[in-house]
Design a protein that fits this description.
The protein is 46% helix and 2% strand. By secondary structure, the chain is an all-alpha fold. It has a domain of 101 residues. Strands 1-2 form a two-stranded antiparallel ribbon. Helix 1 runs antiparallel to helix 6 and helix 3 crosses helix 4. The longest helix has 18 residues. The two termini are 39 Å apart. The relative contact order is 0.10.
Length: 171
């Protein structure tokens, strides 16, 4: 197993610092309606506390997230105020925006398509696994913060009994 060089670690640290910039994350929180004023529970603090707690500990309730938030930031926020931050409509939009931001800024382009291949014409492909799928025209397509299409699909195996039997979409 190879370890990262000092140069790679420094580059990774800089990339992560840009992606999680306090100013940019707080601006996204304001834009999405997650926060109006920046007080104790800022979008940046909230995001870091939630992600680090979910990644590193067993979370059974919102109270677990609140305890972690208070501990990480050296503050004492009441449960009700914390809950109201999470209950805002803008919270889900903010978290989706942060996910998109992290994918856009932290991805590594390792296998760039070459030449005149069809996939080479698309600049917004962040992850491409080589499989293909077809979408029915009746599926709703929504756009995210960046104006790009957000599609959700669940690939199924050919022998999956729940697979759509419509012959127009057969492999």
């Amino acid at each position: 197993m190879s370890s990262l060089s000092t140069t790679e670690l420094i580059q990774g640290r800089r990339t992560l610092a840009r992606a999680l910039s306090v100013e940019d994350v707080n601006d996204l929180g304001r834009t999405t309606g997650q926060a109006e004023r920046l007080r104790t529970v800022t979008p940046h603090r909230l995001f870091l506390a939630i992600v680090s707690t979910l990644a590193g500990a067993k979370v059974e309730s919102l109270a677990d997230l609140l305890r972690a938030f208070n501990y990480q930031n050296g503050v004492h926020v009441a449960y009700k105020a914390f809950y109201h931050r999470l209950a805002r409509l803008g919270f889900a939009v903010f978290m989706r925006g942060m996910c998109l931001r992290l994918v856009e800024q932290l991805r590594v382009q390792t296998l760039a398509p070459e030449g005149q291949r069809a996939v080479a014409r698309f600049k917004d492909i962040a992850i491409q696994d080589g499989s293909s799928f077809a979408l029915k025209p009746s599926l709703p397509i929504s756009t995210g913060l960046s104006g790009r299409s957000l599609l959700h699909f669940e690939p199924r195996r050919n022998d999956d009994p729940t697979r759509d039997r419509d012959s127009r979409w057969a492999d």
